[in-house]
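R.M. (postdoc): so does anyone remember the format we settled on? I'll just put the structure tokens first.
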């Protein structure tokens, strides 16, 4: 709802306040990150794509050296790959819309 409100304010106001929009988007990203971190017990932070790319590397290394928790490494690898793909897909669809 926050994102919808920010998008509408940008479209409907004659001179939208750019600083308010940037702060609103920052707040929305922080809220999303906090909620996802809380729900996933700090395993995922959805607004930090570069951190997820690092986690993909760590998971791949764990699988390569046959770590003790291979199933957990595969699950984390799948989670991070699917999250980055969802970011990419959402960005492309967002631009197209």
């Amino acid at each position: 709802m926050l994102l919808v409100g920010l998008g509408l304010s940008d479209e409907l106001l004659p001179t939208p306040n750019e600083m308010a929009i940037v702060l609103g988007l920052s707040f929305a990203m922080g809220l999303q990150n906090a909620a996802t971190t809380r729900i996933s017990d700090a395993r995922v932070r959805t607004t930090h794509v570069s951190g997820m790319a690092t986690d993909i590397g760590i998971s791949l290394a764990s699988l390569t050296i046959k770590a003790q928790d291979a199933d957990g490494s595969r699950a984390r690898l799948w989670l991070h790959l699917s999250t980055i793909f969802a970011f990419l897909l959402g960005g492309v669809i967002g631009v197209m819309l």
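R.M.: ...and that's the designed sequence above, right after the tokens. Also worth knowing: The mean pLDDT is 79. The CA atoms of residues 33 and 45 lie 5 Å apart.
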